[in-house]
Amino acid sequence: MTAMPLALLRRMRTKRPDRGSGLRIPLPVGAGAFSCEIMDPVGQALGGVEVTVTETRGAARTVAKATTDPHGLFLATLEPGRYTVLLTGSGLQPNRLTVDIAPGQSEPPRRVQMEPSQQLELPPPGTWLFDPPHTAIRFIARHVGMANVHGRFTRFRGGIHIAERMEDSRVEVVIDASSINTGNNTRDAHLRSADFLDVDNFPEIHFASNRFTWRSGPKWTIQGPLTMHGVSRSVTLDTTYLGAVNGGYEQELRCAALATAELHREDYTLNWRNMLARGIAVVGPTVKLELDIQAMYRSHNTPTPPE
């Protein structure tokens, strides 16, 4: 489902002191709605906060992503189920909510007050290994000119080497191209074929960074070549560092980050030109990539993540 126009929410919401009557919005049959009103640390409406809604079941795909409007509002219609809502903004602590959507449900906007980001302590120098059960590599591609196809790669390895000077750090990811999964066996077989990834000849997708640049607060830019389908192109990962904690299988030290990038399909010679009626390309020109990473500090007693 998709985010609805926020002007509609502004027209239909009640005055701020009284939200008891909820939102009266048209809903698709069998769907529900989630809305939130984001406030800054002093209680004023906060626009420009990024809202990412992700399913908690199955492939954990992102189903809605947008920023709050100037009034701090966000609204999306969703299929019934449980979702994780991640709120992020420059200079603010990330805020994560869990919401349950029921058919026909349209609750008043959930008011969330963001807190200023504390100076997150950077992870200590050393090697950090990706924890696959708690790491996801997802993508979104346009299909037949209108709908989005969501997928993920289920097999990968890699890690981060944190240097004494953070700007000298490195990250490397190796993805098994044949592990692509969009939830449709016929489509996945086609994506593995010579028309697209050609996994028999190019079994791996590889990224190795060559530059870390601090932007503001927890925001970093990570640049480096991405090699896919036998072609290397420089890409930029817009990265939000989410902090480091002790916790997990054996209370080991781990850190987390969320990184996004936009890839241009034709940069990698993925130029399959079979056209549908009226000349609509089967796959759009860009692919959005998202890496939701947890990594464990490697030491002599670091546990091996389960398969």
Q: Span from first to last CA?
A: 32 Å
Q: Give the oligomeric state.
A: single chain
- Helix/strand structural class: mainly beta
Strand content: over 45%
- Determine the mean pLDDT: 82
DSSP strand count: 19
Biggest sheet: strands, sense, closure? 8 strands, antiparallel, barrel
Radius of gyration: 21 Å
Please give the order of strands in the largest beta sheet: 8-11-12-14-16-17-18-19
Helix content: under 10%
Question: N-to-C SSE series?
Answer: HEEEEEEEEEEEEEHEEEEEE
**Quick one: overall form?**
globular
Compute the number of helices. 2
Low-confidence stretches: 4-22, 272-281
Region (Disordered): 102-127
Domain Lipid/polyisoprenoid-binding YceI-like: 127-296
InterPro entries: CarboxyPept-like_regulatory, Lipid/polyisoprenoid-bd_YceI, TTHA0802/YceI-like_sf
Pfam families: CarboxypepD_reg, YceI
Which tags fit this structure?
mainly beta; globular; 47% strand; 5% helix; CarboxyPept-like_regulatory; eight-stranded antiparallel barrel; 2 helices; four-stranded antiparallel beta sheet; TTHA0802/YceI-like_sf; Lipid/polyisoprenoid-bd_YceI; 307 residues; Polyisoprenoid-binding protein YceI
